[in-house]
Specification:
With about 775 residues, this protein is mainly alpha-helical. The longest helix is centred in the C-terminal third of the chain and has 72 residues. The protein has a 5-stranded parallel β-sheet. The chain has a two-stranded antiparallel sheet with strand order 1-2. The relative contact order is 0.04. β4, α10 and β5 form a beta-alpha-beta unit.
Length: about 775
């Protein structure tokens, strides 16, 4: 590797001495440069520079006080050199690093006043003491350092400025521009009535809670008012940035939001979400920087140590504090937007309209309108390491150290919690507040002893004190609820006792009045018991008889159950014949009935069947004309299928509805078979032969019939196999010769029915028995 020289180019580099997070510069780089060491300014040089600045300001604003300029500058330089030499940084005081920027902030704060706010010498001295306190004293972490600083400032007031009196008269002064609400021309002036600041800040807080959805409940004790005033002073200055150092719950974020609202600045912060990284961080920073640099909006960016997802975030903050820009932050289209937005401002400032000058104007506007407020916690080594790694956090920020809450702050916070009207503590508020303060301070003292003995920290933060107050309020409310419930329960019990006593007294009176009645009732009861004993004997006798009857009934029920089972078995066997008869009846139609009606002299079996049908329909001594008359009726088939066929005539033969129904449907089934046979042939002989199963056979012997289980449904001549009888198969399939055909019976049809009726009577007697 070798160093390349570029023609007509001169390299000029600047760096700080190594240390404080800065690495050593290697000789391989420095050998190419002419080294020049720039030492720190001497006291005379600093006095000359700042005397010219302050003297020129006083000469233009208040010429009568211009003579005090040299003494104030000399005292400021001496105080700065003493602080730099005696308040050295340690691991616990890593931010005790001072440079020329701190001294310049003193005079920057003094130049914020107008001539109207400097009537005399004392007012100028008060302003100077206030500014040196804000720059140097506010970063001190303990009371010993503050006492040393107060003594050093008091000595300079007496020796350099000729002030009379002690430093105590200048110690708790406050300057601010927030005293007049809504004023366009805010004057940086001395707070002459510190007692009125509590009410004024409360009004600002009420307006903030009305303006924003997130409400804040703050207690403005003395230290809180001082921190708000310091933040307002920092935000008022160009390039004013703050580093707030304090433990959690000390009010750093809340007071910053209130101070930004009081200054009419936009307060912004990032929202840490899942997956938040460098890209999201750069997008959020770009939006805020472009709003401040292009639109000239005053923006307060609040950034806490709990939001540091990556340490590169602090590196970007360090660059913004030091130079107002983050390297490689803007895309080309965003750069064009910046150039077009700041071109008019650069032209108004007298800059040449080049991209470099326009971007420089943009950076200047960002540094003037973008205020960074860092909220850090001193617990642990993280704050110390970050101050060492990123020096701009200390050099370019005004540090405000949030100390532990003093007694008056603890008392004020406790009083704001316990003076709530809903608690109704009354005169107990102040004693309870003192008790809470004593508890918190005792824990702090024990923590200090624990640190000395065990070398371990136990931090008591304002958050723990607030949790103590909230816990007490919650416990008080819960215990009050418990007591109120017990009181209500006891009151209810007492009321019930009183009601019970009253009822007992009334019952005693009634009992006294009912004594004669009770005596007579006892006599009646004794007589009744005698009668009951006699009745009991009779009841026992009746019970014995009833038990005997019950046994007999059980035997009868057993026999009846046997008969019922037998009947159910017979019914199950008869139901298929019943359903077959119904199906056969449904197959008849009017054409078949009309064909039967056309016979002048019907076949014997047809006449026999229709005679039975007429009897079932209630016709006594029926003839063929009666049968044709019945068939001529429109509802002939419906009557055959209806319950009207169970007539009184059939009831004499069939004592039960079941038997009557079976008899009816057996006749109907037989009539259907006869009618079917009649309609299939035109020859009366052939139809007669087909209608009666007993006269037409293929076997040489007469067919044998199995006895019917229901004899009342079987025709006497044995010509109704569908009524329940079963025809056995013939022994021989040979065709019987015509000479062996049986002769037709010349008996009238009525005799066949009479024989059947005899069977029905015998069956009825058998059923009844």
């Amino acid at each position: 590797m070798f160093f390349k020289n570029v023609a007509n180019v001169v390299f000029a580099a600047a760096c700080a001495p190594p240390g404080g997070g800065r690495n050593d510069v290697t000789p391989r780089l420095t050998r190419h440069y002419h080294m020049m060491w720039v030492p720190a300014l001497s006291a005379e040089s600093m006095t000359t520079i700042f005397d010219a600045i302050l003297g020129g300001f006083l000469a233009s604003e208040k010429a009568s006080l211009a003579s005090l300029s040299h003494g104030i500058v000399s005292a400021s330089v001496d105080l700065y050199r003493r602080v730099e030499s005696e308040l050295l940084p340690t691991p616990a005081k890593s931010h005790y690093t001072f440079n020329l920027r701190d001294l310049s902030k003193v005079f920057q704060g003094m130049l914020m006043v107008t001539a109207a706010q400097l009537p005399d010498k004392e007012s100028l001295l008060r302003l100077w003491v206030h500014e040196v306190q804000r720059v140097f004293r506010d970063r001190l972490i303990n009371q010993d350092d503050r006492d040393w600083f107060n003594k050093a400032t008091g000595d300079l007031l007496a020796t350099k400025l000729g002030a009379s009196g002690s430093f105590g008269a200048f110690e708790n002064m406050l300057f601010g521009d927030y005293l007049v609400k809504g004023s366009a021309d805010k004057q940086y002036q001395l707070v002459t009535n510190p007692g009125a600041l509590d009410g004024l800040l409360t009004e600002y807080l009420d307006e903030y809670n009305v303006s924003f959805p997130t409400t804040m409940n703050l207690v403005f004790f003395k230290d809180a008012i001082a921190h708000v005033s310091r933040l307002c002073r920092i935000l008022r200055q160009p390039r004013g940035n703050a580093l707030l150092v304090g433990v959690g719950g000390s009010g750093r974020h809340s007071l910053t939001r209130l101070a930004a609202f009081m200054a009419d600045y936009q307060c912004s912060s990032i929202e840490i979400t899942r997956g938040y990284g460098a890209n999201e961080w750069h997008d959020d920073i770009k939006k805020l920087l472009m709003a401040a640099g292009i639109k000239n909006k005053d923006i307060v960016f609040v950034f806490g140590d709990t939001q540091i997802v990556k340490e590169s975030f602090l590196e970007d903050i360090n660059n913004i504090l030091n130079s107002g820009d983050v390297p490689n932050l803007y895309a080309p289209d965003e750069m064009e937007q910046i150039i077009s937005g700041c071109r008019a401002a650069a032209k108004a400032a007298g800059r040449p309209e080049t991209r470099t000058n326009i971007f420089a104007q943009y950076i200047q506007q960002v540094r003037e309108h973008f205020h960074v407020v860092l909220c850090m916690s001193p617990i642990g080594a993280a704050f110390r390491n970050r101050c060492r790694q990123f020096p701009s956090l200390v050099n370019c920020c005004t540090i405000d150290w949030f100390n532990a809450w003093p007694d008056d702050a603890l008392f004020s916070v406790a009083r704001s919690f316990l003076s709530d009207a809903s608690l109704s503590l009354g005169p107990l508020v102040d004693p309870l507040c003192h008790t809470c303060v004593r508890i918190h301070q005792s824990v702090e003292q024990a923590s200090q002893r624990y640190l000395l003995q065990q070398r371990r920290h136990n931090y008591t933060t304002p958050t723990s004190y607030l949790e103590l107050l909230r816990l007490y309020v919650q416990m008080l409310q819960s215990q009050r609820d418990i007591v109120n419930r017990k009181v209500l329960r006891y009151q209810g019990g007492l009321q019930k006792l009183a009601t019970t006593n009253k009822m007992v007294a009334e019952l005693q009176v009634q009992l006294t009045e009912l004594q004669p009645v009770l005596a007579k009732a006892s006599e009646d009861t004794a007589a009744l018991l005698v009668q009951v004993a006699n009745d009991q004997k009779e009841a026992d006798t009746a019970a014995a008889l009833a038990a005997k009857d019950e046994a007999e009934c059980a035997e009868v029920a057993k026999s009846v159950s046997i008969i019922k089972d037998d009947c159910q078995k017979d019914l199950d066997e008869a139901l298929p014949a019943y359903y077959g008869a119904v199906k056969a009846l449904k197959s008849l139609d009017k054409n078949k009935i009309n064909e039967v009606k056309s016979f002048t002299s019907p076949p014997r079996l047809v006449g026999f069947v229709l005679e039975a049908v007429c009897i079932l329909l209630g016709v006594n001594n029926p003839t063929w004309a009666d049968a044709k008359q019945q068939m001529n009726q429109m509802n002939f088939l419906e009557r055959l299928a209806g319950e009207s066929m169970s007539s009184s005539c059939l009831a004499s033969y069939c004592p039960t509805p079941l038997l009557r129904s079976l008899a009816v449907f057996s006749v109907l089934s037989h009539s259907h078979s006869c009618l079917q046979a009649t309609t299939r042939t035109t020859s009366p002989r052939r139809s007669l032969r087909r209608s009666c199963a007993t006269t037409t056979t293929r076997s040489s012997r007469p067919r044998r019939w199995r006895p019917c289980r229901w004899p009342l449904t079987r025709c006497a001549c044995g010509c109704a196999p569908s009524c329940g009888t079963t025809r056995l198969p013939p022994r021989s399939r040979r065709r019987r010769p015509r000479s062996q055909k049986p002769k037709r019976s010349s008996r009238p049809l009525r005799r066949c029915w009479k024989r059947s009726a005899q069977h029905w009577r015998r069956s009825r007697r058998a059923w009844q028995s």
